[in-house]
Design goal:
alpha/beta, seven-stranded mixed β-sheet, 18 strands, six-stranded mixed β-sheet, 15% strand
């Protein structure tokens, strides 16, 4: 890979001719497939932005100019161009290259957040700051946003502000590949699709490209002018421009895989003094046959795969997601009022089969969690029971709607949170460690944390049976644990283990049950007697926990959520308010942004594996013994 070996910074792109750029693009795609197939990561999105990224770095001068990525998982090529090729052997690994932009890695990176639809607000704010400091004009603000991210309402709030300042330059590049994870949904997607596919418009552009490209001297510039044609011409052959209705200059559509075309469009945008949109058409997964053949998500995110075939190297086995998907289908077959909602993630949240079997009862709202929650509240009012399937980290975006639309109105909506707790691979903003802390302050919400597949099935059914309050069912990423039967039940709380001498009570939250039981075995070997219980429904705190805590030397809570305002904190408060004076020690995730890691190793770091839990309990037992 001769050209790639010589690429250490954006400046190295300057002297390359068109043929060399095409060769470099091919080398980058080969490199991405080789490296990401070994580590896992976001392969499809990056295969789709190779030429677009090369053109961006040839026209703009990062980091003097700011290039903002939305979402940052499409920034692998940007990392290659900015000198981080060597880091891809350790992509998304501890102390390795982040799967998203990272300020600690490079001054070329700005937005580290992996939540979509934010870059236009960053662009608006940065442009305002540079304008007030007298730097805007000399420095350019460029936001690259996918058409999927444009389905988020926050992007349109930002567009409204950007368009309102005609003298403040912001360059927006819409990476239009018709997809977020899966195909992009909604009215905006239809509008962009219309611009892409209008027969007269495409025929006009094709004719213009052929004729003008054959004209010496003025051919390419004239074709660029054609792409920037005034709205009057465009309206004769395509629907009225949505973006120009907002007051934004519109350039495109442009072939995002033609570097020369992209450069012409980007240079026009660079010269324009106000806000401007460049509409680039790209293909997710381009150049890699297995990705191109994957209609579901074009290899949006992959684990370790065979680079030649795209086939996973190992079977993931039974997963939490699959167990949820199976049970929800059964519920839907039994109850016609059950509907499913997702925010642009039917595949990752397990709703593909539901959407195929019940297409009229499945709603993909795009990257719009706020809308999903409030729409669900209205569906509940209308006689349905919505099940809203999200990654736990993305529930953060809809907190106000859960509080004020669902809880205040006692709406029978069930939120199913996949990837709760530590996820690890994608860094700070993908960890689902905030949901328990957030839900603990919502009046009336009922939160279930199943410990295994059997409990997930039971508790999902219990959640969907509740019609007068919002419910939450949360579970972690990955493979299912072995089934853990209860020894007995105490008013809805499952007793999982107990010894003859029951000095200490361990309260295990959800998937932490396996580690808590292993810890109990270690403690029994040391002569420390414990009772391990699973409350199943953690909010509101079950009254039975207060009964079980009475007479114990201490209560130790174990959860894969933040320690602040989590389950442990709620149990401690309930004990105090209930007049139970048993000391309570809370084990959980420290309330900080976590670095990239693997879930087992991170849990061990936080003292949440069997050895760490046992060590904490020994410490408590020794303190109580001395007392």
């Amino acid at each position: 890979m001769a050209l790639l070996d010589d690429l250490h910074s954006p400046a190295d792109l300057t002297g390359l001719n068109a043929e060399q750029l095409a060769d470099l693009a091919a080398e980058i795609r080969t490199f991405l497939v080789q490296k990401v197939s070994r580590t896992g990561g976001h392969l499809g999105p990056n295969l789709g932005v190779v030429e677009l990224t090369l053109a961006l770095h040839r026209v703009f001068h990062s980091p003097t100019d700011a290039i903002l990525w939305d979402t940052g998982h499409q920034a692998y090529v940007h990392k290659i161009v900015t000198g981080r090729t060597s880091g891809f052997d350790h992509l998304r690994q501890p102390d390795g290259l982040s799967g998203y932009p990272s300020r600690t890695e490079s001054p070329h990176d700005i937005i580290e957040n992996s939540h979509a639809s934010t870059a236009l607000s960053w662009a608006d704010g940065l442009a305002k700051a540079w304008q007030l400091r007298g730097e805007l004009g000399r420095r350019k603000v460029v936001a690259v946003i996918g058409d999927g991210a444009l389905t988020g309402g926050m992007a349109w709030e930002a567009l409204n502000n950007i368009a309102g300042a005609t003298d403040r330059q912001v360059i927006i590049v819409v990476n239009d590949n018709e997809r977020s994870y899966s195909p992009t949904i909604g009215g905006l997607a239809f509008h962009l699709s219309t611009l892409r596919t209008t027969e007269g418009y495409e025929r006009f552009l094709t004719w213009g490209k052929r004729m003008l490209s054959s004209t010496p001297v003025v051919g390419r510039p004239a074709y660029g002018t054609l792409h920037a044609a005034k709205r009057g011409i465009k309206d004769m052959i395509a629907p009225q421009g949505l973006f120009e209705d907002l007051g934004l200059k519109y350039i495109g559509p442009v072939d995002g895989h033609d570097i020369t075309e992209m450069e012409v469009a980007l240079r026009q945008a660079r010269r324009f003094p106000g806000p401007v949109i460049v509409h680039a058409i790209t293909e997710k997964g381009r150049g890699y046959a297995p990705a191109e053949a994957d209609e579901a998500d074009r290899f949006h995110g992959v684990g370790q795969i065979n680079p030649d075939t795209g086939v996973p190297l190992k079977d993931a086995g039974p997963t939490w997601t699959a167990a949820f998907a199976t049970e929800l289908l059964e519920l839907a077959r039994e109850r016609p009022d059950v509907v499913a909602i997702t925010a642009a993630m039917p595949g990752p949240t397990g709703l593909v089969e539901f959407s195929e079997e019940f297409p009229d009862r499945f709603f993909d709202v795009g990257i719009a969690e706020q809308h999903a929650a409030t729409s669900a509240a209205a569906m509940a009012y209308g006689g349905l029971h919505p099940v809203v399937a999200l990654y736990a980290t993305f529930l953060n975006r809809a907190f106000d709607q859960v509080l004020m639309d669902c809880a205040l109105h006692r709406a029978g909506v069930t939120f199913v949170l996949d990837r709760s707790g530590v996820t690890g691979d994608d860094g700070a903003s993908h960890n689902g460690m905030w949901d328990l802390s957030l839900m603990s302050i919502v009046p009336g919400v009922q939160v279930a944390a199943p410990r295994d597949a059997a409990q997930l099935q039971v508790q999902l059914r219990e959640a969907v049976s509740i019609a007068d309050a919002p419910t939450v069912v949360r579970y972690p990423k990955g493979a299912l644990p072995e089934s853990i039967p209860a020894l007995r039940h105490v008013e809805g709380v499952d007793v999982l283990a107990e010894s003859a001498e029951q000095r200490l009570l361990i309260v295990s939250v959800g998937a932490m049950a396996t580690e808590c039981l292993l810890a109990a075995d270690k403690l029994a070997a040391d002569g420390i007697g414990v009772t391990v219980v699973d409350p199943r429904w953690v909010f509101p705190v079950p009254a039975a926990l207060l009964t079980l805590a009475q007479g114990k030397d201490a209560v130790i809570t174990v959860e894969d959520g933040g320690r602040s305002a989590g389950v442990g904190a709620a149990i401690a408060q309930a004990l105090t308010e209930g007049g139970v004076h048993t000391p309570c020690v809370n084990l959980g995730i420290p309330q900080r942004f976590l670095e990239v890691g693997r879930r087992p190793a991170m849990l061990a770091e936080f003292g949440l594996d069997a050895e760490g839990i046992a060590a904490s309990v020994r410490k408590v037992a020794n303190q109580e013994h001395r007392a």
